[in-house]
Design a protein that fits this description.
about 450 residues; mainly alpha; 20 helices
Length: about 450
C-alpha cells in the first residue's frame, strides 16, 4: 500500500484519469445545481416538481450506469492487452441495451406522466408542473444513454479528457438556454419549468454530436471508432460471458436506484417542503462527491487494467491505496461541508425560513456520513467491480439498501413520523453495514477476478 502511494507511475496514472473524470462530474453536477438555483426562484412547488420528475431519469440513468460500468470492466481489461476487436463487441452490446432501455423509459414518460408523478406526490400543483417537465425532458433519455456509453468507454481506455471537454461545452449550452428560456431573456419566451427541460434537451443534443465527432474523427484513429458490423459481430458464448459478469452490476444499479427512488417517495410523504429540501441536498451532495467518484472510476480503470495484464499483485496494492486516499478525501470534504452549510445555502434564493433550516440539518447529516460514503464508493465501484467481483458487490449493495435503508426510510417517515433529516440519518445506517462487510471482502482478496481470461 505504501509503495503504491509513493509510486510516481501510480500517482501519475491516477491523476491523469481521476482529474478529467472529476472535472466532468463537477460540470455535470453543476448543470443540475444551476437548474436548481434558477428553479428555486420559481417557488418550492417548482423545485419539488423538478426533483420528483427527475426521479424517473435518475432511475434510468443509474441503470445505464450499471450497463456502462459492467461493460467498462471488460473494456478496461481488454485494453490492458490492447484487444480492440473485443472492445468493439462490448461497445455493441452496451449500445443495444441502452437504446432499448431509453426507448422504454421515454415511452413511459410520454404516455403516463401523470401516473408517474402521482407515485411521488399528492400535491396537484407539483404533479401538474412535473408532467410539463417530464414530457420534454424524456426526449433526451436515449441520446443521453448513447453519450454516456461512449464516455465511460473512453474513460476505460484512459481517454477521460474527451468526455471532460464535452461536458464543459454541454454545461455552457445548458446554462445559456436555461437562462434564456426559464426567465424569457433577450426575446425568448418565458417558459419557467418547461424552459429548464428544453435547456437540458438542447445541451444533450450538443453533447452527443460532440462526443461522436471526437470518437469518429478520422485524424484521431480512436480505439472506439468501430462500424456497426464490427460492433454487431457477436457470438452466443461472448454474449453469455458478458452477461455473466455485467448482469450483477446492471441488477445492482437497477435495484439500488429503485431503492433510492423509494427513499424519495418516503421523503415526499413527509411533505412538499421535505421533497424540496431533499432536492437541494441531492444537488449539494453531487457537487461534493465529484472527487470521490473520480477516484472510484480511476480505481476501476487502473485495477481492471492490471488484472487484464495479469498483474494481480499490483491490482491489490492499487486497491488498498485508493481506499486510503478515498477515506482521507471523505474526511476532508465532510469537514468542509460541515463548516460551510450556511454559505452553501446562500446560493439558493428565496428559501423560506423553514425550508432553509430543514435543508441545513440535512446537509449536517450528510457531512457526518461523508467519510464513509466516499470510502464505500471506491470500495464497491472501484475495487470490487474493477476487480470483476460483480456478484458480491451486487449482493452487498442490494442487501444494504433493501434490508437496512428502505425499511429505515419508511419506518422513520410513516411510523415514527420523524422530520426528514432524522429519516435521512436512519437511511445512512446502510453505509456502515456496507463498509464493514466490504472491508472483510477486500481483505480476503477473493475479489480479484480476470473476466477475460477465457475469451
Amino acid at each position: 500500500m505504501q509503495n503504491s502511494l509513493k509510486d510516481k507511475k501510480f500517482l501519475k496514472a491516477m491523476i491523469s484519469i481521476a482529474i478529467p473524470i472529476t472535472l466532468q462530474n463537477l460540470v455535470a453536477s453543476s448543470v443540475n445545481m444551476l437548474d436548481t438555483l434558477m428553479i428555486t426562484s420559481l417557488g418550492k412547488e417548482s423545485l419539488a416538481a423538478v426533483g420528483l420528475a427527475n426521479q424517473l431519469f435518475f432511475f434510468y440513468a443509474v441503470i445505464i450506469f450499471g450497463v456502462c460500468t459492467g461493460s467498462s470492466i471488460f473494456v478496461a481489461q481488454f485494453w490492458g492487452k490492447r484487444d480492440t476487436k473485443n472492445i468493439a463487441r462490448v461497445l455493441g452490446i452496451s449500445l443495444i441495451i441502452v437504446f432499448l432501455l431509453g426507448t422504454l423509459f421515454t415511452l413511459a414518460a410520454l404516455v403516463v406522466p401523470e401516473s408517474i408523478m402521482k407515485i411521488f406526490s399528492e400535491d396537484e400543483e407539483v404533479i401538474r408542473l412535473g408532467i410539463d417537465y417530464l414530457r420534454i425532458i424524456s426526449l433526451s433519455y436515449i441520446i443521453t444513454g448513447i453519450s454516456f456509453t461512449y464516455a465511460v468507454s473512453l474513460r476505460s481506455i484512459g481517454q477521460a479528457n474527451i468526455p471532460m471537454v464535452v461536458s464543459f461545452i454541454s454545461f455552457g449550452t445548458n446554462a445559456l438556454f436555461n437562462y434564456l428560456l426559464i426567465f424569457g431573456k433577450f426575446g425568448f419566451p418565458r417558459l419557467e419549468i418547461k424552459g429548464a427541460a428544453y435547456g437540458t434537451l438542447i445541451a444533450r443534443l450538443v453533447e452527443i454530436c460532440l462526443i461522436l465527432y471526437f470518437v469518429y474523427s478520422k485524424k484521431r484513429n480512436n480505439p472506439l471508432a468501430h462500424n456497426l458490423s464490427s460492433m454487431a459481430a457477436l457470438t452466443k458464448d461472448f454474449v453469455m460471458k458478458y452477461f455473466k459478469t455485467a448482469s450483477p452490476v446492471i441488477l445492482n444499479e437497477t435495484f439500488w436506484s429503485l431503492g433510492t427512488v423509494l427513499y424519495s417517495i418516503a421523503y415526499a410523504k413527509i411533505g412538499t417542503e421535505a421533497a424540496a429540501a431533499v432536492q437541494i441536498l441531492n444537488v449539494v451532495q453531487n457537487i461534493f462527491m465529484v472527487m470521490s467518484r473520480g477516484l472510484a472510476n480511476a480505481c476501476t480503470v487502473m485495477v481492471g487494467n492490471k488484472i487484464g495484464a495479469e498483474e494481480e499483485g499490483d491490482a491489490v496494492k492499487y486497491a488498498n491505496s485508493f481506499m486510503v486516499i478515498s477515506a482521507t478525501l471523505g474526511l476532508i470534504m465532510g469537514l468542509v461541508l460541515f463548516v460551510t452549510t450556511d454559505g452553501i445555502l446562500m446560493f439558493f434564493r428565496n428559501l423560506t425560513p423553514d425550508l432553509y433550516e430543514t435543508s441545513k440539518k440535512l446537509l449536517i447529516v450528510l457531512a457526518m456520513f461523508f467519510l464513509i460514503k466516499s470510502f464505500n464508493g471506491t470500495l464497491i465501484v472501484g475495487v470490487l467491480r474493477g476487480g470483476g467481483d460483480t456478484k458480491f458487490s451486487m449482493l452487498l449493495e442490494m442487501g444494504s439498501v433493501w434490508l437496512v435503508g428502505v425499511p429505515m426510510a419508511f419506518i422513520g417517515a410513516l411510523v415514527l413520523k420523524f422530520p426528514v433529516y432524522y429519516v435521512f440519518l436512519l437511511v445512512n445506517l446502510e453505509e456502515i453495514v456496507k463498509a464493514i462487510i466490504g472491508i472483510l471482502r477486500v481483505q480476503s482478496k477473493k475479489w480479484v477476478t480476470n473476466v477475460i481470461k477465457d475469451i
